[in-house]
């Protein structure tokens, strides 16, 4: 069994596309986080829903993707940058598991805000793991960007 897991949440598919490229290049297992309630596909409505959840520290129930991580040593964790932080479904995942002794590698997609606080938020939630430098992609990533990043962090 491959001991690399790629976990992600993606509303508008940019983060999913990045997760797919990481999975292709690492031969890792993909796992999409699906909350029990979907966000609106209308950008303005979704933004209001998201802002409300983040301000409250809300962690939605996950109906898929929250299975055990026990068999994985390396876990890539992907989220869109929402208000400079993680999407609430990713926070739910992080708070549901013990990452002690695991290697955690963040990745995100954004519209110009880079990682914001995402790397710090993941490091706080996974304080007993090794955190490697992540990748933040504005829009969509090309295969070469992912290849170069994986080499830079010593994954390849």
From TrEMBL:
Highest rank taxon of the organism: Bacteria
Entry's transmembrane regions: none
GO molecular function, one term: oxidoreductase activity, acting on NAD(P)H
All residue ranges annotated as the Flavodoxin-like domain in the record: 5-152
Protein name per UniProt: Flavodoxin
């Amino acid at each position: 069994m491959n001991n690399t897991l790629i976990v992600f949440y993606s509303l508008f598919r940019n983060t999913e596309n990045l997760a797919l490229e990481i999975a292709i290049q690492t031969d890792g297992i993909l796992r999409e986080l699906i909350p029990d309630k979907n966000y609106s596909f209308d950008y303005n409505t979704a933004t209001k829903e998201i802002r409300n959840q983040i301000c409250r520290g809300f962690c939605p129930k996950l109906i898929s993707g929250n299975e055990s991580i026990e068999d994985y040593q390396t876990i890539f964790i992907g989220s869109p940058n929402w208000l400079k932080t993680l999407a609430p479904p990713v926070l739910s995942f992080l708070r549901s598991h013990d990452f002690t002794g695991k290697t955690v590698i963040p990745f995100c997609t954004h519209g110009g805000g880079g990682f914001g606080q995402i790397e710090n938020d993941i490091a706080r939630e996974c304080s007993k793991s090794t955190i490697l430098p992540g990748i933040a992609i504005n829009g969509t990533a090309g295969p070469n960007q992912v290849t170069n990043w994986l080499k830079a962090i010593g994954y390849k």
